[in-house]
């Protein structure tokens, strides 16, 4: 705006008196500058690029990755989805396929044996996997957005050398924050770590831990100084074979059944001081920042789920005939389907935009929360409608839609419930209006 | 045996897409349609990489002739394990009229300039189903050809190739340099792993033109018309063999 004003001013400089012209230009410049410095409230103001593009635009490697994962998922995972859901167990061949194709260490640098790619690539991979099986997608999401990221950001060189190569090639990790008595109120956790010479002794229980059946290592949030409240929460890296660590029974869930969810018990588990990730008492900070990023991953899972369900349903409506025409040919059907298509598109753009913002180093927490909240809603509505559009067969296990319907429910609950997301979003709205 | 292999990769409409004829009947709709590497060429690349893993081959060079979009296909070949790629830039009308004879001449020039010991191509492309390029290439280079290969093994002084023919399988020995065309059962191509997709970004894709290679792309054929195959008509039921014979005579079929 300042640029065009100054052009007008310079063009009309014969008309405007010199002094008034320069005063006006100065005022515009100040206005311009004040927008730039107001970044806290208007997060994306300093956003000038010379060639903006649509959110559909992708790097060549992102396109190739997405197509490769889609192909691999269709060939190696799709045939096993129904069985894995029935028996509530992820087939080891699926895990091998994820590791072999480099899906478990997407952002890990090449010199640690990882794929050496970016956050957005992870998001695309999580989305493509979710189109086929949201359970497989969540395993890949947790590994990439929580476990690997925490280690890369806060790990010492020694810790990185020990764990990253294995996480990229053959070891699954689990993130342990929730407990029987603390879910949304995460920082009231009760697992304690008591200092004993050059060790810590951990006691307590964690609950709702995903990937627990397969995990070879755990990132455990325990309070090492309860007198400091949540500021005593510290993150520990604990190997599965540590004496005193036991993995409880797998939960028998409504959805995401192939993803193992178990309780973990710590009974005088002794860990060296060197197993602390990052700084003592900073665990709560790490958890918050990681979950902000993890939110985008879950949003990607939900949007993949919605799309996968939609893709499985629409062709059926174009085949099934009633009253002498296809179900698709009824205008009411087309309207309903078009409305859901809009919502899926909107939700996907929110996910991609949040991911790009994060990659650009811009503020993204509000957008991440909005994406997670909205995609969970869209997934729920989409899967519900898809069952209706399929009719009776949608209600049977012979068709994939009922599984998507069951799988999507957890989207409004885990990694920050919808109400928590709304709290976060409201706080941002409040601060945006407070300073106007 | 430090062999260099050239592998041809054609960018074609993806096999899963329903192909539709253009309203003006000059060809099929390609705009906005999903494209991919010709499946037989994927098999060819896979074979070349396996030979490299077995140390029979030391370098795999992927080649594609066509517009800029062909680079996607070359990137996939690099991601599967090819060492470098060559893109022969042919676009617009020249690309529309590009025929196997032209492609085989381009490949012949490259095989000579790159000092290739072996060229592996897919047996045919799934868009034109020509099944000509490999054979023409061998003739132009005066190299032995082993087409419809379902197995390739190293042998002293050359290769032993099992070919799929109408009557069954035929095993032949070829001396190098040679041209092989890959058939369906030669192997099952690997997925490009994500780390390899990233590594492929650093591998070079050299650009060439038909002009530098001294190949004339003037078409020798022109497409008259492209039409949908005739819609399958309903059959007719007959009551007896006599009626069948009478009907066939009537249709002029007997």
Features:
heterodimer; A: 436 residues; 4-stranded mixed beta sheet; 13 helices; 52% helix; B: alpha/beta; 9-stranded mixed beta sheet; 28% strand
Alpha-carbon distance between the two ends of chain A: 20 Å
Low-confidence stretches of chain A: 1-18, 23-44
Shape of chain A: globular
Shape of chain B: globular
Strand pairing plus helix content of chain A: what structural class?
Answer: alpha+beta
* End-to-end CA span of chain B: 60 Å
User: In terms of quaternary structure, what is this?
Assistant: heterodimer
Mean pLDDT of chain A: 90
Main pleated-sheet profile of chain B = 9 strands, mixed
Total beta-strand segments of chain B = 11
| Proportion of residues in helical segments of chain B | 25-40%
Strand content bin of chain A: 5-15%
Main sheet of chain A? 4 strands, mixed
Please work out how many helical segments of chain B DSSP would assign. Answer: 7
Order of helices and strands of chain A: HHHHHHHHEEEEEEEEHEEHHHH
Mean of pLDDT of chain B:
94
Radius of gyration of chain A: 25 Å
Task: Provide a short characterization of the protein structure.
Chain A is an alpha+beta fold and 436 residues long.
Explain this structure.
The complex is a heterodimer of chains A (about 425) and B (about 250). Chain A has a four-stranded mixed sheet with strand order 1-4-5-8. A four-stranded antiparallel sheet of chain A has the order 2-3-7-6, covered by helices on one side. In chain A, strands 9-10 form a two-stranded antiparallel ribbon. Chain A is about 50% helix and about 15% strand. Chain A is built from 13 helices and ten strands. The model of chain A is unreliable at about 1-20 and about 25-45 (pLDDT under 50). Chain A is globular, with a radius of gyration of 25 Å. In chain A, strand 9 (about 320) and strand 10 form a beta hairpin. Chain A is of the alpha+beta class and about 425 residues long. Chain A has helices at about 1-10, 20-35, 60-75, 80-85, 90-100, 120-130, 135-155, 155-170, 285-315, 330-360, 365-390, 400-410, 420-435, and strands at about 170-175, 190-195, 200-210, 215-225, 235-240, 245-250, 260-270, 275, 320, 325. Chain B has about 250 residues and is an alpha/beta fold. Chain B is built from seven helices and eleven strands. Chain B has helices at about 40-55, 70-80, 90-95, 100-115, 135-140, 195-200, 240-250; strands at about 5-10, 10-15, 35, 55-65, 85-90, 120, 145-155, 160-165, 170-175, 180, 205-210. In chain B, helix 2 crosses helix 6 (about 195-200). Chain B is globular. The N and C termini of chain B lie far apart (about 60 Å). The interface of A and B includes residues 61, 100, 106 and 121 of A.
């Amino acid at each position: 705006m300042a640029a065009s004003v100054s052009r007008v001013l310079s063009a009309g400089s014969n008309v405007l008196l010199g002094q008034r012209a320069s005063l006006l230009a100065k005022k515009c410049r100040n206005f311009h500058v004040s927008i730039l410095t107001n970044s806290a409230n208007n997060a994306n103001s300093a956003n000038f690029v010379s060639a903006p593009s649509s959110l559909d635009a992708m790097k060549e490697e992102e396109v190739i990755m997405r197509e490769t994962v889609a192909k691999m998922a269709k060939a190696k995972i799709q045939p096993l989805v129904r069985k894995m859901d029935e028996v509530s167990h992820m087939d080891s061949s699926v895990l091998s396929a994820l590791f072999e194709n480099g899906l478990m260490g997407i952002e890990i640098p090449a010199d640690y044996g990882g794929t050496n790619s970016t956050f957005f690539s992870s998001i695309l991979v999580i989305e493509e996997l979710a189109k086929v099986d949201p359970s497989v997608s969540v395993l890949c999401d947790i590994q990439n957005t929580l476990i690997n990221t925490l280690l890369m950001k806060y790990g010492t060189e020694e810790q990185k050398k020990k764990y990253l190569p294995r996480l990229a090639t053959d070891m699954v990790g689990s993130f342990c924050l929730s407990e029987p008595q603390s879910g949304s109120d995460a920082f009231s956790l009760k697992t304690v770590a008591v200092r004993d010479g050059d060790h810590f002794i951990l006691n307590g229980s964690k609950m709702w831990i995903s990937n627990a059946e397969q995990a070879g290592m755990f990132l455990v949030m325990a309070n090492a100084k309860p007198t400091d409240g949540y500021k005593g929460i510290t993150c520990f890296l604990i190997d599965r074979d540590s004496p005193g660590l036991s993995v409880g029974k797998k939960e028998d869930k409504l959805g995401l059944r192939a993803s193992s969810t178990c309780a973990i018990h710590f009974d005088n588990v002794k860990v060296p001081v060197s197993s602390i990730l990052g700084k003592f008492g900073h665990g709560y900070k790490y958890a918050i920042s990681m979950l902000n990023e993890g939110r985008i991953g879950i949003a990607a899972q939900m949007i993949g789920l919605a799309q996968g369900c939609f893709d499985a349903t629409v062709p059926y409506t174009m085949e099934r005939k009633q009253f002498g025409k296809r179900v698709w040919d009824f205008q009411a059907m087309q309207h309903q389907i078009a409305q859901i298509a809009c919502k899926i598109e909107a939700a996907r753009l929110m996910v991609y935009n949040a991911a790009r913002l994060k990659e650009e180093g811009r503020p993204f927490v509000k957008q991440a929360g909005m994406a997670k909240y909205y995609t969970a809603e869209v997934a729920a509505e989409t899967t519900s409608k898809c069952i209706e559009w399929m009719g009776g067969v949608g209600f049977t296990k012979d068709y994939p839609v009922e599984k998507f319907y069951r799988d999507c429910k957890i989207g409004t609950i885990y990694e920050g419930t919808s109400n928590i997301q709304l709290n976060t979003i409201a706080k941002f709205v409040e601060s945006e209006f407070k300073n106007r | 045996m430090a062999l260099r292999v050239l592998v041809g990769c054609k960018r074609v409409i993806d096999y899963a897409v329903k192909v539709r004829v253009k309203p003006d009947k000059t060809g099929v709709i390609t705009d906005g349609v999903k494209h991919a590497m010709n499946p037989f060429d994927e098999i060819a690349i896979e074979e070349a990489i396996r030979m490299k893993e077995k140390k029979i081959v030391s370098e795999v060079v992927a080649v594609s002739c066509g517009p800029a979009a062909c680079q996607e296909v070359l990137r996939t070949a690099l991601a599967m394990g090819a060492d470098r790629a060559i893109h022969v830039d042919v676009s617009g009308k020249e690309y529309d009229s590009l025929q196997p004879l032209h492609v085989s001449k381009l490949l012949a020039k490259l095989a000579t300039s790159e000092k290739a010991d072996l060229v592996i191509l897919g047996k045919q492309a799934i868009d034109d189903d020509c099944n000509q390029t490999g054979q023409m290439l061998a003739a132009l280079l005066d190299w032995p050809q082993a087409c419809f290969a379902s197995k390739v093994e190293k042998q002293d002084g050359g290769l032993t190739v099992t070919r799929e023919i109408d009557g069954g399988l035929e095993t032949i020995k070829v001396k190098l340099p040679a041209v092989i065309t890959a058939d369906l059962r030669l192997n099952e191509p690997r997925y490009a792993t994500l780390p390899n997709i990233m590594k492929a970004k650093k591998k070079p894709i050299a650009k060439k033109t038909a002009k530098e290679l001294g190949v004339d792309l003037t078409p020798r054929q022109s497409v008259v018309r492209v039409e949908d195959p005739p819609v399958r008509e309903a059959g007719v039921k007959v009551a007896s063999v006599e009626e069948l014979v009478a009907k066939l005579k009537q249709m002029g079929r007997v």
